[in-house]
C-alpha cells in the first residue's frame, strides 16, 4: 500500500491537471478522490492547488491578525494565485542563472529573524511550531525568499541610478528640509522690565539678571532659579520651553539656541521685554557625525619570491635607523616603499580614519606619538614604518546625510522599477491559468 501511495503522489496525468487516489480493491467506476491538481502552468513549471490553498490560508491568517476585512473568496484566491505566478517566474529565472542558497545562508537568515524578534533560534523554532507551522516549511520559505531577493537585486538594482543632482534636489525640497531641521530643548529665564521702563527699572532688572547669572556660574540649578525669578510664561516648568525647531522659536531665542553648545548657559541678553538668560538643554535631529582621522605616512617593505620575510624585516629596520639618523622620509618612501599608491607622495596616505585599516596598523597609529617614527611592525601586507603627522576629528555629517538620501532615493526607485520589471516578465512568460 505504501508503494502505491508514493507512486500516486508523484503521478500527474499527461493531459492534465489532477492527481487522484483510488482504493486498490475498488472497481474502476468507483468515485475518485482528488489529491491535488495544477491551477497554473508557467513556462516550464506549475502551481499546484495545494500551494494555492496553503498561501491563501496564510494570507487569511495575516489579514485576520491585522483586523482587515476579508475580500470575497474568488478575489482573494485570484490575487494570491497571481502572486504565486510572479514568484514562480522569478524562481525559474534564479534556477537558470545558477542561484543557489545553501543551508548556511538559510541558518544566518533565521538567526537574524530570531534576533529581530529578541529570541534565540531555538525559541523561534518553538514559537513557529506552537503556531502549527512546520520548521522545515519555514526554512523552505526563507530559502525561496532569499532566491527571490537575489534575482531582484540582479535584475532590478542595475536599473537604479541616483545622481548627485537628484540628491541636491531632495535636500532642497520641503521634505528634505523638514528631515534636516534641528530641534532644540531650550530653557529660559526672563527678568522683565515694565513697558515704559525708567532707567532705574532697567538698572534694577539688570542687577537681578547679573545676580542670577552669577549663581548659575557657581553651579546653581537653572530650573530652581527660573521658578523663583523668571517672569516668562514657562517659569513654573523651570523655564523649559520643550522641544522646538528654530522656526517655532522667537527670533532672539532661535539665534541663541543655534550658536550655543549643549549645557551652555548664556549671559543676560537685553530685549524690549527685559533681560533673558538661556540654557541649551539638548538638541536632536542635527545628525552631527564626527570621525577620528589621522594624517599618516608610511613605508611598506613587502616579502616576495626573492625577499624573505626575515629579509623584509631587516630592510625595514635599516630604513628605521636611517630615519632616526635624520634621513628624509619622503626620499626613502619614494625609493623603497612597496605601497605604490602612497610611495609617489613620499609615503603620505593623507587624512584617514583608523577604522578602515587593519588592526595592527590601527594599534601602531594609536600608540606612536605625533611626529615620531615607529619601529617596524608586521601586518598581512608586510613590514611597515610609519609616522603620524597629525590627528583631528572631522565632521562627516554632510557625507553621511548624502549617503542616507542616496539610500532613501535608491529604495524608492527600486520599488518603482520592481513593479515595472514584474509586469514585464509577467507579460513575457507563457502562463496558462486552470483555476
Keywords:
435 residues; Chitinase A, domain 3; single chain; alpha+beta; 50% helix; 12 strands; flat; 4-stranded antiparallel β-sheet; 16 helices
Task: Tell me about this structure.
With 435 residues, the chain is of the alpha+beta class. Among the domains are: 182-284, Chitinase A, domain 3 (Roll), CATH 3.10.50.40; 290-395, Chitinase A, domain 3. It contains 16 helices and twelve strands. Strands 1, 2, 3 and 12 form a four-stranded antiparallel beta sheet that branches. It has a four-stranded antiparallel beta sheet with strand order 5-4-7-6, with helices on both faces. It has a four-stranded antiparallel beta sheet with strand order 9-8-11-10. The longest helix has 32 residues, at 397-428. It is flat and about 100 Å long.
Explain briefly what this protein structure is.
By secondary structure, this protein is an alpha+beta fold.
Query: What's the CATH class label of the domain at 290-395?
Result: Alpha Beta
Cα-atom radius of gyration = 36 Å
Order of helices and strands: HEEEHHHHHHHEHHEHEEEHHHEHEEHE
The span between the termini is 31 Å
Structural class: alpha+beta
Quaternary status of these chains? single chain
Mean pLDDT: 87
Tell me which CATH architecture of the domain at 290-395 applies here: Roll
The outline comes out as flat
E-strand count:
12
The share of residues in helices is 40-55%
Strand content: 15-25%
Indicate the CATH topology of the domain at 290-395: Chitinase A, domain 3
Count of DSSP H/I helices = 16
Largest sheet: 4 strands, antiparallel
List unreliable stretches of 5+ residues: 1-30
